[in-house]
Each structure stands twice: as C-alpha cells, then as structure tokens.
Amino acid sequence: xxxxxxxxxxxxxxxxxxxxxxxxxxxxxxxxxxxxxxxxxxxxxxxxxxxxxxxxxxxxxxxxxxxxxxxxxxxxxxxxxxxxxxxxxxxxxxxxxxxxxxxxxxxxxxxxxxxxxxxxxxxxxxxxxxxxxxxxxxxxxxxxxxxxxxxxxxxxxxxxxxxxxxxxxxxxxxxxxxxxxxxxxxxxxxxxxxxxxxxxxxxxxxxxxxxxxxxxxxxxxxxxxxxxxxx
Amino acid sequence: xxxxxxxxxxxxxxxxxxxxxxxxxxxxxxxxxxxxxxxxxxxxxxxxxxxxxxxxxxxxxxxxxxxxxxxxxxxxxxxxxxxxxxxxxxxxxxxxxxxxxxxxxxxxxxxxxxxxxxxxxxxxxxxxxxxxxxxxxxxx
Lengths: 231, 140
Fold this sequence. Notes:
Helices cover 48% and strands 9% of the residues of chain A. Chain A has ten helices and four strands; from the N terminus they run βαααβαββαααααα. Chain A has a two-stranded parallel sheet. In chain A, strands 3-4 form a two-stranded antiparallel ribbon.
C-alpha cells in the first residue's frame, strides 16, 4: 500500500490546496514529465491511501528524504528493502524553461520511461516480494543510506528551532534559523524549498530555486537511481 | 529567568534557568522532566543507560551543591547539537548524528506518528503485515 507523507510545515491547508486545485492550470509538459495526467490528478484529489502531514519533516530526518518526490520501500516485517531514493524522477526537470515551464520533448520522453521503469519495479516487488530483483541486500541498503554528520544534525536543530518559533508566531525571528539550516545542509532541497516558501509564497519554485539548481553544475538535483543492485 | 527548553521530540517545557554563555543551568529537579535523563551516583542515566561524567569535570555539570545542573554540558556529552534564541528565550537540543546513523544501520523502518488530512493519527507500524511504499512529496 502507499503511505504518502507531505513534508509541509504549512500543514493541512497547503496540502488540500495542492491536491484539490480548483483553478490551477498546469503546463501540459510539466504534467507529462511528472506523470500527472487528468485521471491521476482526479485520483490524487481524493486519495484512497493515507495522506499524512509531516509539518516538522520528521520523516525527512528519519528516512533521509532530502528532496521530493522520494520514496522508501518497507516490507511486511517492517524492514526497509530500498532506502530513500528519488521515485521515478530525474534531472530532466532541469531542462525546464523557468519562464514557460516548457521541457524539450526528448527529455519528457526519457522522464516517462524512467517513471514507468520505477512503477514497474514497484509492481514486481508487490508480486514477488523478497524474490524481486529490486529488493536490495542489507549491505547495499547500508551503502546507499548515508546518515547525517554533526553538521547535518546542527542544521536539523536550527530547522526545528525555526519551526518552533514560527509556530509560536515569531516568524521574523524564525527566518535566520531557517537560513542557517540551509547553509549547514545545502544538500537538503527539502530544507531549501520549504524554508524559501515560508519566507515568501512561490519562492520555492521561483528564480532562487532555478538559480540554485543551475548552480549545481555537474552535480545532480535528483541523484540517478540504480534500480537493481548490480546495475 | 524563565525560558523554554525543547529536548528532541519531547514537549517544550518552560522552566526557571540561567543561561550563561554556552551553559544552561536548570534546577536539577527539572532535569528528568526536560530530558528524560536523571543524575545518579553512577552518572547521568536514562533507563538502563548511564553515561559517566568525565573525571575532573563534575563542576561543568553541577553546582550549588548539586541543586543546579548544566543541560548544555549534557548535550555536549551526548553530542547533541543545541541552538538557542536569546530574544524569545528558547533552547532547542537536537538529536545526535550518531543516534540517527545507528538507527539507520538497523533494517527496521523507524516508526512515526503523523496526522492525516482529517487530523486522525497514524503510526507507520499500523501497516505492519503489508508492503508499504512510503512516498514523500510536498506542496512547495
């Protein structure tokens, strides 16, 4: 089953606005590359699976969700069989024109293929369980699970203090702690985009976001996922 | 001076304390309520775990005949990062990186409790016995 977790400090209203849009017209190519066809959007608007709200980004820290969308696979015994990874998305999004949201057709096609492969892998696991070739060994999981270092932990403390101050109504006092969290843990796009959005609505997908993505240079925004341990 | 202390995921607690430079002196009697740790003859303890106070450093942890305890010294001893906001008089003690790394070394998916869109609380462990695709997304 799917358990969706929304890393959203803004809470239920922001999530409801997102999954039940009334007037937002999404660019067709963006819908294409993300796999958001009309049927899927209609289903997403009335989720049949638990859709949980994680205002403090608790699962981000527990599982290593440093961006969205990411996923981890958990078997019936409660064991992780694939650690946090970008779920069917790639750096193709970097080819998007920030003004028009247009993405080259060949990039869209590659994105669709990647998404299909990821969904097929999930289906294989659902059908075959531990015998699925997409279930990773314990050693491979550990190799892919990079835990936080002391600086990352300090970033988390700043993020949490900022969230507390924000919740207590001290928005302006919270912002420096959010900025510090971003500075200390630049790999976390969850911190970046969440705190940008808290600073100013729309900033998470505005010029700052695109500039930061472009500044990555040869580094990945979404790290490539090796579906099988051997490839 | 009254200030608010948040120790990890524990509820914020308003206590009388003295913040002096990077030290936070609390009433020893508040230690367990704030942090879950207790000061015992064998060290600072929580459940079955006791961490000895390093030799020669007792004064860093305790003063005024043991009535006051330095929570920042405990945080440092446990490698917990801490951040304070002097204006609003809030101290936040986070989780040590080593604690999280040790948890990630376990095959067990860490449990959590979160509300759904209607406010109903869900534990991840509620879904034990089923395969779970835990999918993170956001509106931002």
